[in-house]
Design goal:
single chain; alpha+beta; two-stranded antiparallel ribbon; flat; transport
Length: about 200
Amino acid sequence: MLDLSIIMYILLAIALIALVFGAILGFSSVKLKVEADPIVEQIDALLPQSQCGQCGYPGCKPYAEAIANGDVITKCIPGGQPTVVKIADLLGVEVPQMDGAAVPEVKVAYIDEAMCIGCTKCIQACPVDAIVGTNKMMHTIVADLCTGCELCVAPCPTNCIEMRPIKLTTQTWNWQFDKNLIIPVVNTTELQKKLVVGEVKDE
């Protein structure tokens, strides 16, 4: 049976070793820390986080990094034109004018409920919880939540999911106003006045 003093020495040695390694790890985390690019983080926050890969990158963060390095800002199909406008505003650039052929067609998923077997594989694949249903019960899509990422299509064993274009309504129409026709509005609640909409013409 070990003496009590020996046990105390062992515990003190273990504590000392843990303290030394903790100090080394703490110093390393500070010394070797890689600062993230703040603009990448801001762009990533504007993207829909569907991680669908339709932009040609494996996820939203890599696409945000590509945008920060000069890639075009119009590749996010789930985000659509509203996301393009937000990114352009963040970067301080003009919103790209895309012709009809270059504009990605925004679609939402649709489930043929007669073919659905309730396997829940599409629910597991959906990154935005836009599919409602339970095991061995019919599923359906909440169109207002669907980002059109298409991640639910491939896992479906009965091929009952298809992507359909969004019907144009007053809510989904891409309203593009001529700034010259909008009365300039200035935000006066901030310390530094900022033009919110419109353009001030030089006299």
